[in-house]
Design brief:
The complex is a heterodimer. In chain A, about 15% of the residues lie in helices and about 30% in strands. By secondary structure, chain A is an alpha+beta fold. Chain A has a domain of about 270 residues. In chain A, strand 12 and strand 13 form a beta hairpin. The longest helix of chain A is centred in the C-terminal third of the chain and has 16 residues. The radius of gyration of chain A is 23 Å and the shape is globular. Chain B starts with a strand and ends in an 8-residue tail after the last strand. The radius of gyration of chain B is 17 Å and the shape is elongated. Helix content of chain B is about 20%, strand content about 30%. Chain B folds into two domains: about 70 residues, 2-Layer Sandwich (Alpha-Beta Plaits); about 55 residues, Alpha-Beta Plaits (2-Layer Sandwich), CATH 3.30.70. Chain B is α+β, with helices and mostly antiparallel strands. Chain B is built from three helices and eight strands. Classes of the chains: A alpha+beta, B alpha+beta. The interface between A and B is medium-sized, with 33 and 19 residues.
């Protein structure tokens, strides 16, 4: 396809204050009215957004050294354990980490009122965080125990590193069983009581660049209210998932690993969540700019909720036990209407991802770019795409002590 | 005629009194009980809708206060903390009365207090914990 502009040309227009930016929602109407070619000629950048729960998120912290020095072996932030199996005062706090004394699901369904994600939100909000750390002591790092408190601005680095964010599509969860179930897709009422989904649909970043033509390693983006970058493909990256006629996958597919400086992010876009009976997780705001380098990109960005399908899955049996049981595909337009029909029954729908938040992120990113505060990057390398031959592997299960496969 | 939703809080010493009987027999009020519970310390909480004449309703309120009951407006029982709400909509399929609902095409959550029956299911269904209860509110009528 013929290239109509380059990233560098777009950046020159950003610097000159002449760039034309629209959100992925706004270009739908433009393309319907003027057609793809005219829309592609008129618009330089399309902004996207998503604001949903993303469990695979966390932050690397360097706490600085106390006097005397310590090689932290175990660390707790506000009582939540952080991973300390890296250098002396480096730790990684994961979004789903829970205090050792949390009753979890022993008191079913557990409430999970405070986990790693909540510590991250408190950190970004500038609150005082309690640190309890211990060590076995070495000649170079003699201190064995420290209890102190700190604020985000007082430590050396805080790098948000999320191994899997911005899922390209996701399941619609229902419950075919006889009683309530409590999942990462929310509370699912029995006998198809509700259907929960979690994607911004037409505004979601990877639906607007379905073949990862412009999003790659090093792509600059909106992350948690600040600026971040694509670090790598996300874990469970599955770009080979089956696609519909418009090119977007019908099943969970590509994912992104994102990285950014936590110190310039905002608590509004990094929210600690408590999923009843499931656990703590982080609601992450992500927005990615799509440069309209050719007419094909504009055609992708004009995708509508009516054209994006998601699979309906039973979370009482099929999902947890990895049994087959696809209950069909449904469009995001139907999901957003408030009810869908599953096996002949009208089922109310709810989202876990905030569409209002996604819209605000896409608008914010548009303002940043139009205002000259945000330039686009060319990827340093491409991400594995639909033609990379990736297939998702299950966990190998065999007797680790024996010689033969189970 | 007056129609009011209220919450009565019973201290342990009055929890065994036939309050509803008196409301009906002595004050000619219609009573529609929405929810009732007694906690392990034997304190009771009763949510109901009362309707009847304005003067009887006011006399009944006076009488209940004399009995040591605490009367709270039901509409102030559940608080929607808008700044905590991320407008995901997870609550809207859990709320049984439609008090928490979705506004389209804005795709934002709305809380219609007058429809709330204080079932409290939203408190734990909200992942962002944006719903709060004022069980110990001093907000008496």
């Amino acid at each position: 396809m013929k290239q109509i502009r380059t990233i560098e040309e777009i950046n020159e227009k950003i610097r000159a204050g002449k760039v034309v930016v629209m959100t992925a929602e706004e270009v739908i109407g433009l393309v319907e009215e003027k057609g793809v070619n005219e829309a592609a000629a008129a618009v330089d950048v399309v902004t996207t957004g998503t604001f949903g729960p993303m469990c695979s998120s966390g932050v690397f912290l360097n706490l600085g050294h106390p006097q005397p020095r310590i090689k932290i072996n175990e660390a707790y932030l506000n009582g939540v354990p952080a991973y300390a199996g890296i250098a002396a005062v480096d730790i990684y706090l994961g979004a789903t980490a829970l205090p050792p004394r949390d009753p979890a699901n022993r008191n079913y369904p557990g409430e999970f009122v405070y986990g790693g994600a909540h510590v991250i939100e408190d950190l970004v909000a500038g609150k005082e965080i309690r640190l309890d750390a211990s060590s076995y002591g070495t000649d170079c790092y003699p201190l064995k125990r420290i209890k102190t408190s700190f604020r985000l601005a007082e430590i050396n680095e805080a790098t948000l590193y999320n191994p899997r964010n911005a899922y390209q599509n996701y399941n619609v969860a229902v419950n075919l069983g006889q009683k309530n179930i409590y999942t990462y897709m929310g509370i699912l009422k029995p006998n198809l009581g509700n259907a929960n989904y979690s994607s911004a649909g037409q505004l979601s970043p990877l639906f607007n660049d379905p073949y990862l033509k412009t999003i790659g390693i090093g792509t600059r983006l909106f992350l948690g209210g600040g600026i971040g970058y694509v670090a790598w493909n996300g874990t469970q990256h599955n770009p080979s998932a089956e696609r519909g006629s418009t090119g977007v996958p019908n099943y969970p597919a590509a994912t992104l690993a994102l990285v950014g400086d936590l110190k310039q992010m905002k608590p509004r876009w990094l929210r600690g969540l408590s999923y009843l009976g499931y656990g703590a997780t982080l609601q992450v705001g992500v927005g990615i700019p799509i440069p309209i380098l050719d007419e094909g990109m504009m055609s992708h960005c004009a995708i509508r909720d009516e054209e994006i399908m998601a699979p309906i899955l039973d979370y009482q049996r099929a999902y947890p036990y990895r049994e087959s049981g696809n209950l069909g595909l449904v469009s995001y337009a139907d999901l957003k209407s408030g009810s869908i029909t599953v096996s002949g029954k009208k089922v109310p729908t709810a989202s876990l991802s905030s569409y209002a938040g996604a819209r605000e992120i896409a608008e914010t990113l548009k303002e940043w770019i139009s205002g000259g505060d945000f330039e686009l990057t060319s990827p340093a390398a491409s991400l594995p795409a639909h033609d990379a031959g990736i297939s998702l592997k299950p966990m190998p299960q065999r007797d680790p002590d024996g010689q033969e496969d189970q | 005629m007056i129609k009011q939703k209220i919450v009565l809080r019973f201290p342990p010493h009055v929890v065994e009194q036939p309050t509803i009987y008196h409301l009906i027999k002595d004050y000619d009020l219609m009573v529609n009980i929405l929810r009732a519970d007694i906690n392990p310390r034997k304190e009771g909480r009763l949510m109901m809708e009362l309707s009847g004449s304005e003067s009887n309703y006011q006399r009944a309120l006076e009488w209940m206060k004399e009995q040591g009951l605490k009367i709270i407006s039901l509409e102030q029982q559940i608080i929607w903390q808008q700044d905590r709400c991320t407008h995901c909509g997870a609550c809207t399929v859990i709320c049984p009365t439609g008090a928490l609902c979705f506004t389209r095409p804005e795709m934002t959550v709305r809380f219609a207090e007058e429809k709330c029956v204080v079932c409290e299911l939203c408190l734990r269904a909200c992942p962002a914990r944006a719903m709060e209860t004022l069980v110990d509110s001093e907000n008496s009528l």
